[in-house]
C-alpha cells in the first residue's frame, strides 16, 4: 500500500519512521505515577499479610508451623496450595512487575523532550489538508495539540530520535540555529527526501534534506581543532613575553578561555573539565618555569 493511500495512524506512523525527529510521544507521567502507586499499595498489602502470617506461625503450638519462620527446608516442602506459598508466589509476581515499571520510569525520565521546532512541524503536518488532514479521531487523537493551550508542555513528551539523546552544547545550539539555512545547500550536499502525495511537478509539500549529523561531526571537529590551537597559542605568546607578571596574566586569560571552550563546546563532565584545565595550566606553568630558569642562567 502506497504511503499516500494510508490515513490516520498508519500515515502518522510512516511520517515518524520517515523522520525520527517527529517520533514524539506523550510520557503519560500522571497515569504512570498512579499505576506505580497502586502497585506499591498492592505490595504493601501483601507484605502486611506475610508479616501477620509469620506472627501467627511463630505463636503456633505446632512445632512445624513455628519452624516455617526460620527453616527454609520446611517452607520448601509445603504444597502449592499452602497460604505461605501462595502469598510468596503472588508477592514475587507483584514485585517483578513493580520493579520493571519503576525501571521503565527511570529510563523514560532520562529521555529528552522534543525540540519546539519538531513539535511545531508535527502539529503542522497533522492539520495540513495534504498531511494528516485532522484524520485522527477518538481517545488519544489529540496529545500533540498546540503546547500553548495550557494543557500540554514540551516536557510532557519524549523524543525517540537518537540525536535528541545528545547533551546540548553551545556548538549544537548554534548548529540548530543555522540548520534552516544549511537545509538549502545543493542536493549533492544534502540529499532531498520527500514524504506524502506529490504535485504535478513531482514534488511533495513535505520534504527533508537529510539530517544534521554530518554537520554535528564537523562542528565537533572544529571544537577539537580550536582547543588544540588554544593550547599552542599561549606557548608561542609566552615565548615572546619577558615579564613574569605578564606571563602570569596570559596564563590566567588562556586558562579561563580554555575552560570556557571545554564547558560550552563539549559534553565533558565537571571532573573532566577540571582535569583538562589543570593539565592545561600545568603545561603553561612548566613552560614558564623552564623559560625563567633559562633566563636566570643567561
Structure in words:
By secondary structure, this protein is mainly α. Helices cover 61% and strands 6% of the residues. It contains ten helices and four strands, in the order H-E-H-H-H-H-H-E-H-E-E-H-H-H. The strands form two sheets. The chain has a two-stranded antiparallel sheet with strand order 1-2. It has a two-stranded antiparallel ribbon with strand order 3-4. A hairpin with a 5-residue loop joins strand 3 and strand 4 (204-208). The N and C termini lie far apart (85 Å). The relative contact order is 0.09. The model has no long low-confidence stretch (mean pLDDT 77).
Helix share bin? 55-70%
C-alpha geometry: flat
**Widest sheet: strand order?**
1-2
How many strands?
4
Structural class: mainly alpha
Q: What portion of the residues fall into strands of 2 or more residues?
A: 5-15%
Helical segment count: 10
Radius of gyration from CA coordinates:
31 Å
The arrangement of helices and strands along the chain is HEHHHHHEHEEHHH
Distance between the termini: 85 Å
Oligomer: single chain
Mean pLDDT: 77
- Specify the biggest β-sheet: 2 strands, antiparallel
Residue ranges: pLDDT <50 for 5 or more in a row? none
Key attributes of the depicted protein:
298 residues; 61% helix; two-stranded antiparallel ribbon; 4 strands; mainly alpha
Concise overview:
The protein is mainly alpha-helical. It is built from ten helices and four strands, in the order αβαααααβαββααα. Helices cover 61% and strands 6% of the residues.
Amino acid at each position: 500500500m502506497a504511503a499516500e493511500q494510508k490515513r490516520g495512524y498508519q500515515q502518522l506512523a510512516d511520517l515518524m519512521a520517515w523522520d525520527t525527529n517527529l517520533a514524539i510521544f506523550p510520557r503519560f507521567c500522571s497515569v504512570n505515577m498512579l499505576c506505580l502507586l497502586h502497585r506499591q499499595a498492592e505490595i504493601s498489602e501483601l507484605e502486611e499479610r506475610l508479616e501477620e502470617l509469620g506472627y501467627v506461625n511463630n505463636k503456633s503450638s505446632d512445632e512445624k508451623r513455628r519452624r516455617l519462620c526460620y527453616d527454609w527446608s520446611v517452607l520448601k516442602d509445603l504444597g502449592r496450595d499452602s497460604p505461605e506459598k501462595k502469598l510468596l508466589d503472588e508477592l514475587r509476581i507483584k514485585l517483578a512487575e513493580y520493579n520493571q515499571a519503576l525501571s521503565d520510569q527511570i529510563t523514560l525520565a532520562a529521555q529528552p523532550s522534543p525540540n519546539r521546532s519538531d513539535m511545531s512541524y508535527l502539529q503542522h503536518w497533522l492539520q495540513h489538508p495534504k498531511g494528516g488532514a485532522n484524520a485522527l479521531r477518538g481517545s488519544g487523537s489529540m496529545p500533540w495539540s498546540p503546547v500553548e493551550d495550557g494543557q500540554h508542555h514540551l516536557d510532557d513528551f519524549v523524543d525517540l530520535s537518537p540525536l535528541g539523546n545528545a547533551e546540548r552544547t553551545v556548538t549544537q545550539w548554534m548548529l540548530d540555529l543555522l540548520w534552516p539555512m544549511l537545509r538549502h545547500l545543493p542536493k549533492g550536499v544534502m540529499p532531498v527526501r520527500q514524504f506524502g502525495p506529490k504535485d504535478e511537478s513531482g514534488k511533495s509539500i513535505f520534504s527533508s534534506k537529510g539530517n544534521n549529523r554530518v554537520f554535528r561531526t564537523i562542528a565537533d571537529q572544529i571544537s577539537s581543532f580550536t582547543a588544540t590551537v588554544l593550547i599552542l597559542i599561549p606557548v608561542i605568546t609566552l615565548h615572546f613575553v619577558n615579564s613574569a607578571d605578564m606571563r602570569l596574566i596570559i596564563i590566567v586569560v588562556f586558562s579561563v578561555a580554555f575552560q570556557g571552550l571545554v564547558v560550552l563546546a563539549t559534553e565533558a563532565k565537571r571532573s573532566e573539565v577540571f582535569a583538562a584545565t589543570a593539565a592545561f595550566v600545568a603545561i603553561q606553568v612548566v613552560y614558564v618555569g623552564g623559560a625563567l630558569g633559562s633566563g636566570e642562567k643567561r
